Amino acid sequence: EVQLVESGGGLVQPGRSLRLSCAVSGFTFDDYAMHWVRQGPGKGLEWVSGLTWNGGTIGYGESVKGRFTISRDKAKNSLYLQMNSLRVDDTALYFCARAMVRGVISPFDPWGQGTLVTVSS
Amino acid sequence: EIVMTQSPATLSVSPGERATLSCRASQSVGNNLAWYQQKRGQAPRLLIYGASTRDTGIPARFRGSGSGTEFTLTISSLQSEDFAVYYCQQYYNWPPLTFGGGTKVEIK
């Protein structure tokens, strides 16, 4: 069974850092692009960042560019999101998602259940 | 950046009726368009990809259509479990991979 399990969320003060993790299982991690998507309280979905199967192409949403860094660790079957200089408007539920198709940019399937990040003083 | 616009924001429908949701792209995305369903407290679930192909296990009452810049998700004969928020997403060009703002389908 394919599983994605996020962790690392919590309450953090503005300006501080946090690192999210997404542990995956049930598929060959190296074969798929991976993404982070967030959802603010009562809001819609916002793509945050993604990287291709080999990390050769990495992208970020404008609102997080220069502050967030995505990475993947093949040995640990894990995806990460390093979040620096956090702002109140980064408060959201952060989902990890896998590309549906190996090797190419494709829709997201499946998704994890999310980890909540709250930025507040 | 390709901007995705969904309408209406909220759709009130009675059980058993049809719901028609729209999604417009600011430039052509070909058929690289997906639809997701999100129920309260849950992660989004992929319904449709390639603008019109249902994902595994998705009931036939969900139908996607369109290409280029105009897309439609039609849910025929709404069931109680279909009341949720629906998002479209383009995966034609990235970064970024953009979502529409969502359409909430509520019980009339």
> For the residues shown, what is the average pLDDT of chain A?
96
Oligomer: heterodimer
Which structural class do the helices and strands of chain A define?
mainly beta
Q: State the end-to-end CA separation of chain B.
A: 36 Å
Q: What's the alpha carbon Rg of chain B, rounded to whole Å?
A: 13 Å
| Main β sheet profile of chain A | 7 strands, mixed
User: What form of chain A results from the Cα inertia axes?
Assistant: globular
Key phrases:
heterodimer; A: 121 residues; mainly beta; seven-stranded mixed sheet; 0% helix; globular; B: 108 residues; six-stranded mixed sheet; four-stranded antiparallel sheet; 10 strands
At a glance:
Chain A has 121 residues and is mainly beta. Chain A has strands at residues 3-7, 10-12, 18-25, 34-39, 45-51, 58-60, 68-73, 78-83, 92-99, 108-111, 115-119.
Describe the structure.
The complex is a heterodimer of chains A (121) and B (108). Chain A has 121 residues and is mainly β. Chain A has no helices and eleven strands. Chain A has strands at residues 3-7, 10-12, 18-25, 34-39, 45-51, 58-60, 68-73, 78-83, 92-99, 108-111, 115-119. In chain A, strands 2, 4, 5, 6, 9, 10 and 11 form a seven-stranded mixed β-sheet that branches. A four-stranded antiparallel β-sheet of chain A has the order 1-3-8-7, with no helix packed on it. In chain A, a hairpin with a 4-residue loop joins strand 7 and strand 8 (78-83). Chain A is globular and about 40 Å long. The mean pLDDT of chain A is 96. In chain B, 0% of the residues lie in helices and 47% in strands. Chain B contains no helices and ten strands. A six-stranded mixed β-sheet of chain B has the order 2-10-9-4-5-6, with no helix packed on it. Chain B has a four-stranded antiparallel β-sheet with strand order 1-3-8-7, with no helix packed on it. Classes of the chains: A mainly beta (121), B mainly beta (108). The interface between A and B is medium-sized, with 23 and 24 residues.
